[in-house]
Design brief:
Elements lengths: L1 E4 L3 E5 L5 E7 L3 E7 L4 E7 L8 H6 L5 H14 L8 E6 L14 H15 L4 E6 L3 E8 L5 E7 L5
């Protein structure tokens, strides 16, 4: 069974027949967390770094932001029995959406990565693995049965 996570959304599961997948991780981040001791995992697709940019929107759609989205992902994983000490965190995305040689003024991808790293460090998490940065779109999938993660890359348009 495949479950697709859209932009500003997430999914947690203990169904070992499920694969959770998200597409089009450009400047967005895909954040997967998995507890191998009980086969519980989740995948989050965030767009923006900090919820303080729009607290009203963050209250309605917490998975849109790195800070509120990651907190929500953890809360739901813990509700399924996951333990913090067992969680393996994998990250993908955070690309520049500009072709090589073009200026990326807003640096959303880079800011997303920076905020996530600070948040993880502050909460004593380590990134187990990941593929971030550059100017490549990614697809990320988490197989709940064993925590196996795939990250596929696709160029972001022509390089003129």
């Amino acid at each position: 069974m495949k479950t697709v996570v859209g932009v500003s959304d997430f999914r947690v599961s203990s169904n070992t027949n499920e694969t959770i997948i998200t597409y089009a991780l450009g400047s967005c981040l895909g954040i997967a967390a998995y507890d191998p001791t009980i086969n519980v995992g989740g995948l989050l697709h965030v767009m923006l770094p900090l919820s303080k940019a729009d607290p009203d929107k963050a209250a309605k759609k917490p998975a849109m932001y790195v800070d509120t989205g990651f907190e929500l992902l953890l809360k739901e994983l813990y509700a399924l029995g996951a333990k913090k000490r067992n969680l393996k965190v994998t990250v993908a995305g955070g690309a520049s959406m500009k072709p090589k040689g073009k200026k990326d003024y807003f640096k959303i991808g880079k800011r997303n990565i920076t905020v996530l790293r600070k948040l993880l460090w502050k909460n004593k998490f380590m990134i187990s693995s990941g593929d971030v940065g550059g100017n490549i779109s990614r697809t990320m999938a988490l197989r709940v049965a064993d925590g196996y993660i795939t990250i596929n890359k696709k160029p972001l348009g022509s390089q003129r």
